[in-house]
Amino acid sequence: MSMNINMENITISTDLPLYLPVVKRLSEQLGIVLSSSSNGDENIVADLNDQAYALIVDEHGISLHPNDRRLHGPIRVDFNNGANSHRRRFGGGNGQAIAKAVGVSGRFFPSVLDLTAGLGGDAFVLASLGCDVRLFERNAIIACLLRDGIERALYAGRDHPELRDVMGRLKFLECDSADAIKSLTEEGRPDVIYLDPMFPHRKKSAKVKKEMQAFQNIVGGDEDADSLLKLAIDCARYRVVVKRSTHAEFLADLPPTYSLTGKSTRFDIFALRKIPS
Ligand SMILES: C[S@@+](CC[C@H](N)C(=O)[O-])C[C@H]1O[C@@H](n2cnc3c(N)ncnc32)[C@H](O)[C@@H]1O
Fold first, then answer.
1. Are 45 and 39 in contact (CB under 8 A)?
2. Average pLDDT, the chain
3. What is the pLDDT of residues 41-64, one digit of tens each?
């Protein structure tokens, strides 16, 4: 089942009065419904009955919950926890396919422009590897979750120098990449452009992890991704990297220079110029 989510079937709520100002500001910014308690007082509570998704604000930040709990669990961006913290500590490792794909080496740390930021997972890995990463995201709900995750990680970074350094290499902008890339100056051109668009034909299956399900429901398919690839090839200094699922066709039907293929993910590399050694 595929849902079309728009701002009318998302609510925002908190059950903690402390967060009311945040909730009110976000509801205005995002143009989404504020879910209020039946007695009409200021203590706003979740009312998920007829809404497809709810943004909930609590002491852990902002999280996205599907109304139908069978779809997937809550989604929240947490750069200081679990997998992300592990990646930071144990590497980011040059051995990772993504490092090879963007051309990170002991001597070269490319500047990367991530045109499809999503929840920032890939950008965070690249920043952990030592790359300066600009990341663009156009979907307002996804951008809201990402911005919240970045703000909390910057705050946590006060006690974790390693995290602070990584977060210092990430620069997020909410915008449409197709517009933003056209206004880059010559100095603003990145070494590498990274693209991980939604794949319109990805099937839903039990194997699809919860983040991907949320993307499918909230973002849908990035139908304009083909044109983004062409803009990227005109802009990047050294290479463009496209992340696909292993058996997906090439983006824009354009064969890459070469691919790095893993069990479930493939990186298609468009090599434009030799990376400095
Ligand atoms: C599959 S997700 C990316 C996941 C990401 N790599 C991660 O690690 O979380 C694709 C994202 O790209 C965003 N996107 C697609 N086209 C875009 C564009 N032209 N400008 C900005 N964001 C775009 C979508 O809104 C979606 O959030």
1. no
2. 86
3. 444 444 444 458 899 999 999 999
| Residue spans per domain, the chain | 7-66, 82-271
Number of other residues whose CB lies within 10 A of the CB of residue 177: 25
| Whole-angstrom distance, CA of residue 46 vs CA of residue 26 | 15
Atom of ligand 1 nearest to the CA of 175: 21
Q: pTM score > 0.70 for this model? A: yes
**Tokens (6 digits) for 172:** 């997020």
Please tell me whether residue 222 adopts helix, strand or coil conformation: coil
**DSSP code of 75?**
B
Spatial distance between the Cα atoms of 13 and 35, rounded to a whole number of angstroms:
6
Report the SS3 class of residue 195: strand
Pocket test for ligand 1, best of 96, 115, 116, 223 (most atoms within 8 A of CB): 116
Look at phi and psi of residue 31 and say left if phi exceeds 0, alpha if psi is from -120 to 50, else beta.
left
How far is the centre of ligand 1, averaged over its atoms, from the C-alpha of 111 (Å)? 18
The confidence band for 6, taking pLDDT boundaries of 50, 70 and 90, is low
Q: For domain 82-271, give the fold.
A: Rossmann fold (3.40.50)
CA nearest neighbour of 123 among 150, 156, 141, 155: 150
Residue 207: phi and psi, rounded to 5, are: -80, -20
From CA 17, how far away is CA 43, in angstroms rounded? 6
Dihedrals phi, psi of 91, to nearest 5 degrees: 120, 65
In angstroms, the Cα distances linking 196 to 8, 15, 276 are 27, 35, 25
**Closest atom of ligand 1 relative to the 212 alpha carbon:** 1
pLDDT digits (tens, 9 = 90+) for 94-139: 448 999 999 998 899 999 999 999 999 999 999 999 999 999 999 9
136 ligand 1 Cβ < 6 A: yes
